[in-house]
Structure formats: C-alpha cells, structure tokens
Fold this sequence. Notes:
Layout (H helix, E strand, L loop, with lengths): L1 H20 L6 E5 L2 E4 H15 L2 H10 L3 H19 L7 H25 L8 H18 L25 H14 L7 H16 L3 H18 L7 H11 L14 H15 L3 H6 L24 H27 L2 H13 L9 H18 L1
Antiparallel strand pairs: 1-2
Amino acid sequence: MHNTLIHKSIRILFVSAILLASFGQIGRVQITSSLSFYGFEVLFGVVILLAFVGGYGSFLIGQIKKPGIARSITIFFSWVFLTLLASFLFQKPTLVPILYFIRSCLYVLILGLPWWMKQKKIQIQSVAAAFSMIFVFLTILFHVFISDTRFLFWYGWDDHLGRVLTPLLDPAFGALVLIGIFFLSYQRRMTDSTRAFQFITLVLLAGTFSRSGYIAWIVAHLVFIWTGKMRKELVWIPLFLMLIFLTPKPDGEGGKLARTSTILARTTTQQSLLQKTSLKTILIGEGWYNYKSNTDSLIPNHATSADNSFLHVFVSAGIVGLVLFILIITRAAVIAAPAEKAFILGAIIHSQFSNTLFYPWFFVMLLLFAMKKIMDDR
C-alpha cells in the first residue's frame, strides 16, 4: 500500500512537472539577478525524493556498476564536484555554484527516472503531444497579443521586438524547443494533422530569426533523413528556406539575418573567458558556474554562463571535465534513435552559440524522447 501511494504520487507529479515546463518562463521565480528556479523544478525535486524512498538509489547503483552512459555521467559529475570543492580553496565559497551543481544533478537524475519507472511497472503516458501543443499554442498567443515586448528589457531580457519569442521569452532557446517538438512529432503516426503541426512548428521557427536555430534544424534534419533513410522528408528543407525568406522581417537589428552585433557580443565574451585562462583553469577549472561571463551593467542580465556549452565545461571543470563531457555526448548520440539523434546533434550545433546543453528545457526535451522510447519498448 505504501509503495502504491508513492508510485501514484510520482506518476502524477512527474507528468504535472513536464506539463508545467511547457509554460516556459511563466513559472520562473527570480531570487537574484543570477539565480532563479522554476516551479516544475520543485516538482521534479519532490519526485526524485519520493523515488529514492521507493528504491531509486538501488536502481542507480546497479546502472553505474555496468559499463555504459550512466557510469560515464557519474564519473563526469564526480569530477565536477571535486573541482568545485577545489575552487573553494582559492576563493570564498558562494551559494550560486553549489545550487547550479545541485540543479544539474537533479536533471540527470530525472533523465534516468523513466527506466526505473518501467522496472517498477509504474504506468506513465507520453505527454509529448500535450507539451508540444501547449508550447506551440502559447507561442502563437504571445506573438499575436504581446507584439510590443520592449518592457522585457527592464526585467533583464532582450526585447527581441517583432520576433517569435515563445514562452521562453528568448528566440534562440525557443528555437531549440521548436526543433525538439518537430522531431518529437516523428514519434507519432504520420497523419495530415501531424504534418500540419510540423508545418506550423517550422513557420514559428522561421519567425524566431534565430540563425543558430536555423543551422541546427537544417543540419539535424539532414542527419535524420540520412540515419532514418527517409528521403521523402527532404521536402522540408526547401520549404523551410522559403519560409525564412517569406517571413515578414521585423524592424530593428533582430530581424536582420546578416546582423553582427550578437556575433560580436558572443565572441567578446568567449575571448574574455579564454584570456583569463590560467594553468589552474586548464587543470581543474574555476568551479561549476563559478566564473563571471558578462560585464557589469546597469541593466540586469540573466546570462550566467559562457555562450558555448563546451567552453562552459572547460572553464568550469578544466580539460579533464571537457574530455569526459565530450565522451558522454558522443555516446548519447551513438545509441539514440534517429529522431532523438537528430535533436541531440541540433542541440550540439546550437550549443556553439549558447549554453544549450545545460539549459533546463534541453533536459525536458530529452526526457520526452526517453518517455516515448520506454513506451515503445513496452
């Protein structure tokens, strides 16, 4: 009876957290200019606690004992933890890096949960379709009814005037989720309504004017066609290119595909981080999120890490951490199914311009792919 109640609670909270994530920044709680959390993360935290009460720890130990990605992830985060402790020998310990480390561990633990739930025969339904529809609906709603977004500037966000923001209030990261939603749709039966939904998703992606999103989707889709041997899906490429050029361009810098301001900003940030690199940084890093990535400004800025996931890992955990991280990403891409592999590759490309691979919604999208995979295995 006790385990039945725990399993039922896990199932309800787990699904609720994923659906809440589809509302994007609406559930954000800002503590300081560099520290925030989301409502769905709280639910995920409760789910993990309940899962450990139900025996999740034993399951994880069993997975770590076997050669595989679970062991690689454990080694990586063990190294990250040790380098974070070492960084406190050189400077006064602060709370922010510790909290970011806990958050990263939370998402990794959540990613393993569907397999444990399968073992415990906890029935879960894939909520990918519900997540996708809510996210797309809110994206359209935001774009139609909140056309003047300049007020966001005073809350630490770029206004991205005239661009499709999505509920994430950021065209680039919104593009990442739209890419994930597009590839998730291939896990459903290909009907006219599914095709129509894919088209709407690409229209919204074109409207983000996110060049990193454009490149990521095109390369990922080509890989999907190649690995999945689905040549008929090639038709989406010229259609998407046509959408990019036909989509009305908003006034301002954000609508210019040839804009250089964002490239300059990212290059400056990355050069600044690399110029500060010392022997200590190369060997053990500065500690997880324990470095400054942006210059001081009178306007609040929510950026808390490098605009490149691999640079973030290098600066945080040194060259050893970077090598371990690359091994994990490579192994994940190799064992993934075609649609999931395409999304992971798209995210890797996207991560050259943003810290994509540690963004909460990247993990949420991976979780949705994992849930569908578990259901197919049943």
